[in-house]
Amino acid sequence: MSKQEQEKHDGDQVMIKSSEIVQSLLKGLVVIQAFDQQRPTMTLSEVAAETGYTRAAARRFLLTLVSEGYAKQEGKQFSLTAKILKLGFSYLASQDVWKNAKPLMKQLVEQLNESCSAAVLEGEDVVYVGRVATTKRVMSVSLNVGTRLPAFATSLGRVLLADMKDVVLDDFLSTCHIEQYTAFTLTNKAELTAEISRVQQQGYSLVEQELELGLTSISVPVRSQAGKALGALSISTHISQTTKQQVLTSILPALKACAAAIEQLAY
């Protein structure tokens, strides 16, 4: 099968019968996803409440995760272990484009002395699949592979949302959780739609202080040979260190060149 045929095949929607879905696996994944930054540890009762499962069902899933090393139990508290990262790294290991992108991202960081990230769209969030950081800190939270940020309020997310068809984007903005992170955050659906349309036309997204005060980020898509966005590449800086004009005239051309080089590796 040629790459073009494979990309067409991969883009086809597969109809899955409900009888073919393993419900126990699905429920186990829900238990794993119940743990997050706000809930790193939970009791059995809390997991049951968070997932909507009975205490007996939640207990079986938790003990299975513990027995396989994906979770641990300390008294009444349960938490995930580092082994859970193997699930995410299995994805990364299967995606040559992001593995091959790392040296190019490092070169870009050395050139600009700014942190560089790569991400894909997953649900309402962007998920980091690559990260090369400098010693400069521009956000209050640590950013690593696996970090999730809201797509609507990030330049990475808006670049990927710009790749959606209008009807899909409209549904996304109608149903996703939209939060006012700062006084600058765009929360109006019509304004977000207009901004994402602008991103689609100009080929990049620049977001200033919408996710966190002082944070400026600019992103461009990384596309397949068929033109579909495989993910996005971004540079983040602080508004006190870099002006908007500098971002557009110095950072953007280098970012585009890096994305183009990554695309060549993907073909």
UniProtKB/TrEMBL annotation:
Residues 22-82 form the HTH iclR-type domain. It comes from the Bacteria. GO terms for molecular function: DNA binding; DNA-binding transcription factor activity. Keywords: DNA-binding, Transcription, Transcription regulation. Gene3D superfamilies: 3.30.450.40, Winged helix-like DNA-binding domain superfamily/Winged helix DNA-binding domain. NCBIfam families: pcaR_pcaU (TIGR02431). PANTHER family: HELIX-TURN-HELIX TRANSCRIPTIONAL REGULATOR, ICLR FAMILY, TRANSCRIPTIONAL REGULATOR. This is Beta-ketoadipate pathway transcriptional regulator PcaR/PcaU, IclR family. It comes from Colwellia psychrerythraea (Vibrio psychroerythus).
